[in-house]
């Protein structure tokens, strides 16, 4: 051992101290015990990170460290291979560390090593390329899980960056260093490595010449670094840049370039990832198209065929789920055939091991899915058995490092075996495998994903067997995922949501409240990268019950105010941001005109965006813009959830009632909100069974009562059914509420001659029921006791602009008596004639003039708009609502983007314009809310279809009252009109119970 390695002071590093101990004892165990390698890795990591933090390297101290650690591993190789099973790896590691010293200070290297490593052509000349070769061989032998080897390679490559005398060698060392730093971050979570890897890769790419092979290599390196940065949540906004760079790399390659298949595969995979993260369906469909085109272009036997068949099957699986779920065995048969062909190609080489493992795990999953759809028990059992066999095969082939896909395949296949056979050992084995996987996870990201899988499996075992210990462990696993910054927003949200439900099952409402509060806070973040309403709704549908369950939980812990805040934070998310922007835009313009203009122009830029890439760039631009606006004085809380004081301030005009149907009657309440505070009223009769009964009585009853194909007796019975539903609604919700608000003082918004005002803000499926028309034969009717209005959220009332009818109003009447594809609507002409004669200055769009473009343009010029037409819902657009105009359908999402310059009242005389989508009932995705978002503060519509003649009579009475009682407003006008309709048809609630007013 050279004299220079003798520790000179007690402060010497642990590697030197260990070498000194060995030199005295000559005990090889001193060098071979696990602590020796840990100490060496610690010294290397400190050196590597020290360079990364300031991108400066002091050569001599760095050489000394390589010498010290190199001697440690040299001495380890001298031990008997029986005692050192890693002899060959240690030998490569030592050679890598000594390579720079062989050039710089040959005398510091053992003589045997000097003979193995060739000398430099000129003494003292660094052979940086050779150092990189040694590092590459080491990494190839050691694999991605050898932290010490990666740190050693990084330390040598850092030295190469500094000592290289040729630019090409310096760039090569830098490129290789990017790769090693990416591995260190991905597999070992070494701090500072990812930031440095991306920074170095950017520098390499920016300094390279356009069109050169080197630039293509550096672009690939940058893409690799960005991919890992994104997947490990280090740089969440890297995906859009990564997709753009991958497209650029693909465009730079000629059609016959051998690297094109890899670039196409990468692009399709990234587009699929973007769909998973943001629900952008266009990206998923492009991934499918890219994969199909690549398979068609590849010659038979090409080594990429197996990989791409697997990728296409994976893309098709996800697309099938998007288009309604994997419910068709034919679709699964195609996917399984693709998987089998990929796994056992008839021509060409066998897939490499890593791909073969992924293919085997995927095929296992697809077979399981087909088994669930197969009616034949024998065939289902065959698929299930093969799925388990394949999953075990994939797991056993993973050499102790199974991927998440493999773990999920085996754990789920074992669970299926338990479900089919009752084999408890299979279920326990699934949990054991996942527990081991959690303990061996080498990065925070993998640990979070494996905890999520373990939590889900324990949750399932708890549901099957009822052991509270499983529920507690599952909740803890999922809670840790929810709190992990390494996990995706979706997994964090699912973790918090499921942990909260488990805590409720364990009768721990306080703990559940914390979990569920976090879940609600994550909902806006979940949809932040999506602008299309359909994509946002699809994302939120999986968490539809979350806001009301969370509020019910908080109420049960004695925190009704916090429950209200959480409801306001978790509801109306799809349109809430746009509504808030519309309110604050002019105030922002006075403070910062440039920011206001940029914010105002974003929707138009998004509409004009040519592709998904540009839309996602705009989404990131929006986030940066919002951050900048929050730095403007007075806008610190811009687009933040409303606080309690803001919510209460919206109730100046009168009380707002927020009924909540909890998981059971014990957790059902109504929050009665006034400007003075929040009062909580238990609703013990409001149970899940009650809500189901209300749906049958009210929704089915109204549908049958208005069905002209039914016999008169059937329609009469349906009216009675509807009336019984209104009585049940009184008993369960409205009666207790009205009794509780009886003593509240009347507000200035009330009509002194009529009943007091009351606003309803229903949650969940309660939004489908006419709370304002609940009645009980012996106790009275809500319609007679209060003048009701609705609001999608309490805070929305405070954002509504005041408006009253006046002589200066400019009404617009739109009548569509005939339209392609729908029955004629003769009442539309009669309705229009009545209103044109009643409202001076009315502009009429009728028949062929009632087009989508004309209507959208006219919204800017009228403060009253009345539309008499058909309305409906599109099954191919997740049941988005639309108005039927002469030239086609005008959808909710189109109307919501309009801006009504003078918007005041929108009266939609069409079917079900107040009915929201069933999958996201708390989002108020209906035609009325679309006009509200466009700028109309008062809205009139219906919860179910209405008849022609009833619509004409109602509209006539409404405007007659509105024009002669201008001081009272739209709510009182509707109340008056409905009262006349009810008096004319007292036994037909289907005609008058559905009409609602939304607004102040």
Task: For this entry, give a set of tags.
6-stranded mixed β-sheet, CHAT_dom, 5-stranded mixed β-sheet, CHAT domain protein, alpha/beta, 16 strands, TPR-like_helical_dom_sf, 1000 residues
Give an overview in words.
This is CHAT domain protein. Helices cover 62% and strands 7% of the residues. The protein has 1000 residues and is α/β, with parallel strands linked by helices. Among the domains are: 1-169, no CATH class; 255-351, no CATH class; 644-797; 803-998, Rossmann fold. It is elongated and about 110 Å long. The protein starts with 13 loop residues before the first helix and ends with a strand.
Task: Report a brief summary of the structure.
With 1000 residues, the chain is of the alpha/beta class. It is built from 42 helices and 16 strands. The strands form four sheets. Strands 9-8-10-14-15-16 form a six-stranded mixed beta sheet, sandwiched between helices. The protein has a five-stranded mixed beta sheet with strand order 3-2-1-4-7, with helices on both faces. A three-stranded antiparallel beta sheet has the order 11-12-13.
Trace the largest sheet across and list its strands.
9-8-10-14-15-16
CATH class categorisation of the domain at 803-998? Alpha Beta
Question: What is the 3D shape?
Answer: elongated
How is the biggest beta sheet arranged?
6 strands, mixed
Helicity, as a percent range: 55-70%
- First-to-last CA distance: 88 Å
Unreliable segments (pLDDT under 50, ≥5 consecutive)? 7-11
Structural class: alpha/beta
Reported CATH architecture of the domain at 803-998? 3-Layer(aba) Sandwich
**Compute the gyration radius: what is it?**
34 Å
Average pLDDT over all residues: 88
Indicate the CATH topology of the domain at 803-998: Rossmann fold
Strand content: 5-15%
Domain CHAT: 727-999
InterPro entries: CHAT_dom (IPR024983), TPR-like_helical_dom_sf (IPR011990)
Pfam families: CHAT
Protein name: CHAT domain protein
């Amino acid at each position: 051992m050279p004299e220079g390695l003798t520790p000179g002071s007690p402060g010497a590093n642990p590697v030197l101290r260990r070498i000194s101990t060995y030199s005295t004892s000559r005990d090889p165990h001193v060098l071979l015990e696990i602590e020796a390698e840990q100490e060496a890795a610690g010294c290397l990591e400190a050196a590597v990170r020290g360079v990364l933090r300031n991108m400066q390297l002091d050569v001599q101290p760095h050489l000394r460290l390589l010498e010290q650690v190199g001697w440690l591993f040299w001495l380890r190789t001298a031990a008997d291979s029986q005692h050192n099973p890693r002899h060959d790896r240690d030998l490569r590691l030592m050679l890598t560390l000594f390579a720079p010293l062989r050039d710089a200070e040959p005398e510091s290297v053992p003589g045997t090593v000097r003979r193995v490593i060739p000398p430099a052509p000129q003494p003292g000349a660094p052979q940086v390329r050779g150092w990189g070769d040694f590092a590459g061989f080491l990494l190839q032998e050691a694999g991605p899980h050898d932290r010490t080897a990666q740190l050693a390679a990084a330390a040598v490559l850092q030295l190469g960056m500094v000592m290289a005398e040729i630019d090409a060698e310096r760039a090569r060392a830098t490129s290789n260093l990017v790769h090693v730093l990416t591995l260190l971050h991905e597999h070992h979570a070494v701090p500072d490595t990812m930031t440095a890897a991306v920074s170095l890769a950017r520098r390499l790419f920016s300094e390279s010449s356009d069109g050169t092979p080197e630039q293509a290599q550096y672009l690939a390196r940058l893409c690799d670094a960005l991919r890992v940065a994104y997947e490990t949540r280090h740089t969440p906004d890297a995906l859009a840049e990564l997709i753009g760079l991958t497209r650029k790399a693909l465009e730079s390659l000629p059609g016959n370039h051998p690297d094109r298949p890899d670039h196409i595969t990468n692009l399709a995979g990234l587009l699929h990832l973007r769909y998973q993260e943001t629900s952008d369906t266009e990206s998923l469909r492009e991934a499918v198209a890219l994969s199909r085109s690549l398979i068609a272009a590849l010659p038979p036997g090409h080594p990429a065929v197996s990989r791409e068949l697997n990728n296409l099957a994976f893309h098709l699986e996800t697309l099938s789920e998007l288009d309604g779920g994997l419910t068709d065995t034919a679709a699964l048969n195609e996917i399984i055939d693709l998987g089998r062909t990929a796994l056992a190609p008839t021509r060409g080489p066998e897939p490499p091991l890593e791909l073969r493992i992924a293919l085997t795990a995927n095929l296992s999953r697809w077979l399981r899915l087909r088994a669930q759809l197969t009616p034949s028990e024998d065939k289902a059992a065959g698929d299930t058995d093969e799925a388990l066999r394949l999953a075990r095969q994939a797991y056993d082939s993973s050499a102790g490092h199974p991927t998440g896909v493999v773990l999920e395949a085996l754990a789920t296949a074992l669970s299926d075996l338990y479900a089919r056979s009752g084999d408890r050992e299979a279920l326990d084995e699934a949990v054991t495998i996942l527990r081991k996987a959690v303990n061996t996870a080498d990065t925070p990201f993998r640990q979070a994903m494996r905890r999520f899988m373990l939590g889900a499996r324990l949750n399932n075992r708890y549901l099957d067997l009822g052991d509270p210990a499983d529920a507690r462990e599952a909740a803890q696993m999922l809670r840790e995922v929810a709190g992990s910054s390494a996990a995706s927003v979706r997994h964090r949200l699912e973790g918090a949501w499921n942990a909260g439900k488990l805590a409720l099952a364990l009768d721990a409402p306080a703990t559940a409240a914390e979990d569920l509060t976090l879940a609600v806070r994550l909902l806006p973040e979940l949809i932040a990268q999506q602008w299309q309403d359909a994509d946002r709704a699809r994302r939120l549908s999986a968490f539809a019950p979350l806001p009301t369950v969370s509020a019910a939980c908080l109420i049960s812990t004695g925190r009704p105010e916090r429950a209200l805040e959480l409801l306001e934070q978790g509801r109306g998310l799809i349109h809430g941001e746009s509504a808030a922007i519309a309110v604050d835009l002019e105030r922002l313009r006075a403070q910062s005109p440039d920011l206001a203009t940029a914010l105002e122009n974003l929707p138009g830029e998004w509409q004009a965006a040519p592709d998904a890439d540009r839309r996602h760039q705009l989404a990131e631009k929006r986030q940066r813009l919002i951050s900048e606006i929050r730095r403007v004085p007075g806008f610190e809380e811009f687009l933040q959830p409303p606080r309690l004081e803001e919510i209460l301030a919206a109730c100046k005009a009168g009380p707002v009632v927020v009924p909540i149907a909890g998981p059971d009657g014990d957790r059902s309440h109504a929050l009665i909100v006034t400007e003075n505070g929040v009062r909580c009223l238990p609703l013990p009769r409001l149970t899940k069974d009650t809500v189901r009964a209300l749906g049958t009585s009210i929704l089915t009853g109204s549908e049958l009562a208005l069905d002209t194909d039914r016999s008169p007796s059937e329609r009469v019975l349906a009216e009675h059914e509807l009336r019984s539903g209104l009585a049940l609604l009184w008993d369960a919700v409205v009666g207790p509420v009205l009794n509780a608000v009886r003593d509240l003082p009347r507000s200035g918004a009330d009509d002194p001659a009529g009943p007091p005002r009351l606003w309803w803000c229903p949650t969940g499926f309660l939004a489908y029921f006419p709370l304002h028309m609940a009645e009980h034969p012996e106790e009275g009717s809500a319609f007679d006791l209060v003048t009701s209005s609705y609001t999608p959220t309490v805070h929305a009332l405070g954002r509504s602009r005041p408006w009253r009818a006046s002589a200066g109003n400019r009404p617009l009447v739109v009548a569509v008596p005939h339209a392609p594809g729908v029955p004629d609507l003769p009442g539309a002409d009669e309705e229009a004639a009545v209103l044109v004669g009643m409202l001076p200055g009315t502009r009429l769009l009728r028949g062929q003039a009632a087009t989508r473009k004309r209507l959208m343009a006219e919204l800017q010029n009228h403060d009253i708009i009345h539309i008499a037409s058909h309305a409906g819902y599109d099954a191919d657009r997740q049941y988005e609502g639309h108005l039927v105009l002469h030239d086609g359908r005008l959808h909710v999402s189109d109307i919501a983007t309009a801006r009504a310059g003078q918007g005041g009242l929108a009266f939609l005389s069409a079917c079900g314009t107040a009915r929201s989508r069933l999958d996201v009932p708390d989002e108020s995705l209906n035609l009325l809310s679309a006009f509200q978002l466009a700028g109309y503060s008062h809205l009139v519509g219906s919860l179910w279809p209405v008849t022609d003649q009833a619509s004409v009579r109602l509209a006539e009475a409404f405007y007659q009252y509105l024009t002669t009682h201008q001081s009272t407003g739209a709510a009182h006008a509707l109340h008056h009109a409905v009262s006349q309709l009810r008096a004319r048809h007292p036994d037909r609630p289907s005609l008058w119970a559905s009409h609602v007013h939304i607004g102040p």
